[in-house]
Write a structure and sequence with these properties.
The structure holds 2 protein chains of 2 kinds. By secondary structure, chain A is an alpha/beta fold. Chain A is built from 11 helices and 25 strands. In chain A, the strands form 6 sheets. In chain A, strands 1, 2, 3, 4, 5, 6 and 18 form a 7-stranded mixed sheet that branches. Chain A has a 5-stranded parallel sheet with strand order 8-15-9-10-11, with helices on one face. In chain A, strands 21-22-25-24-23 form a 5-stranded antiparallel sheet, covered by helices on one side. Classes of the chains: A alpha/beta, B alpha+beta. The interface between A and B is large, with 49 and 43 residues.
Amino acid sequence: MVKYVIVGASAAGIGAVEAIRDVDPVGSIAVISEETCPQYSRPMISDFVSGKADFKKMKCRTDDFWKENNVEALTGKKATALNLTEKTVTLESGEKIFYEKLLLATGGKPFVPKMEGQGKDGVFTFTTIEDAERLAAKIDSINAKSAVVIGAGLIGISVTEALMKRGLKVTIVELQEKILSLLLDAKASDLVEAVVRKAGVNVVTGQSVQKITGKPGNESAVGGVLLTKGDQVPCDLVIVAIGVVPRTELAAISALKINRGIVVDNMMQTNVPNVYASGDVAEAYDFILSQNRLLPLWPLAMAEGQVAGYNMAGKKTTYMGGTNMSSLKYFGIPIVSIGLANLKEDPTIEILVKEDDEHNVYKKLVLRNNIIIGMTLVNCIEHAGVIFYLMRNAVNVKKIKHQLLSDEFGLATLPVSLQRKMCVVQ
Amino acid sequence: MYKEYRPLHFYAHLSTLNKKLMMKLMSPMKRIIAKQEACMGCGLCEVYCTVQHSKSKDIIKAYNSERPKPISRVIVERNKPVSFAIQCRHCENAPCVTACLTGAMQKDEKTGEVTHNKDKCMGCWTCIMVCPYGAIKMDKEGKVVAKCDLCQGLEEPACVANCPNQALIFKEVKP
């Protein structure tokens, strides 16, 4: 019997191990992971492809992380079955592990829609270090000159930048009318698109790929794509970066409640006692929408894993919630966007905007009842965290509304009572 | 009743129970505290911080020629007539540490300091997004972030030592 069994060793798994060890130094922990390499930062795989980072730089914990935390690491192993009455996890080898507390941190897997020709050599997804290594090796081995990236979300933009840096000609294809549409409003999206185009990327929006075609003389290798409106784009590689879906297979064969992801409460516990879920596989709380939803983001997975870990080890901890929140560094244009930054105008909301086209600066806040529910900052992000604090704590900003977007905005602008609460002044 | 004398190593057995608690008992933390009423908003702390974090440690070179340009990790917040200096608070449950995508931002269990490893930083700006104090700055040339390191190696951080009005003090605080 292992006291804590964790399935998955990325952000949520790491967070859970650290939290458990914070309060329980002795309880046995076993982590099951398909990957055998040390813990690494998945958001960094684009830097790996571009050549900016090697694997050593990508490691986000020490090589001895398992040993230091006294964890039995079942790496290179796949959990294939879960029995909630017996309280066991079965590995591919048939080995059964009995658990007292279980955390499902199985993450997400890339979503690949059905496309003709998707089995051709040169089609990649982009989630793990293995994907990145295979992609980098392929670029070298076939001396790739061009690529089509399907999907202009966070992953699509990151891999596009990496491929550009390696000297490839990149076409990015997005089904929505705007790039980064889940994160940015039209204005901010246009700003980014202009920068991306200027860098030499061919941006195609409002279309998708209906077919991946072969090379003349070698049908099994990628030679190009056929877009939905009939245009042909020749390329050597196709990267599918549409998004991730939760890996719920392990949980699906049990009595666990699953919506799109595994349903959890605010202590990251599932509907089955002693079984927890965190990270991309779980539907955790969104404090802006006041409901649970899928939010496959690294920092949130880490935080959810920590909450699960503390609760598993007996320290009652409530998850404060996350929201749709990302910061972007790509193409040299820093952006932070949080919450409902892309709401349509309606009488219940108030939108504050400040633009400076000359410097490519765009700032936008969305307020409801004087509480900030959305924020986008482009090229001027240094006070993003202060505004995030106001959002997270649902601070009424009526009195400081006129200062929120000014260049002078900062901690000194906040009401003294809040400054005291934050302990910035005595 | 007598008060039992407990040397620090008395707490060593706690290491098997709670490493963090032991660290707290053993090492009181020194922190920079700003006195708002004493701050004149002169910005000298920013100047000395910049120089201290330059390669040359020379004010002229630091401001005029050094590349990447050294940047101040202390920020003077002004909203007239109020001003105060702010730098990384080395939070107990630091949001930047949890949010860091690469493990560059870490909490030192011994000193309580939030440390930033520049070599691990990928410049994704996620820590900036979550820092409630706006105390993390962008090093745009270096494509990494920069924040207060309490001037490791100095007896007193440069901003504290050079504040003309003693509006910054470096003292032990309860963890």
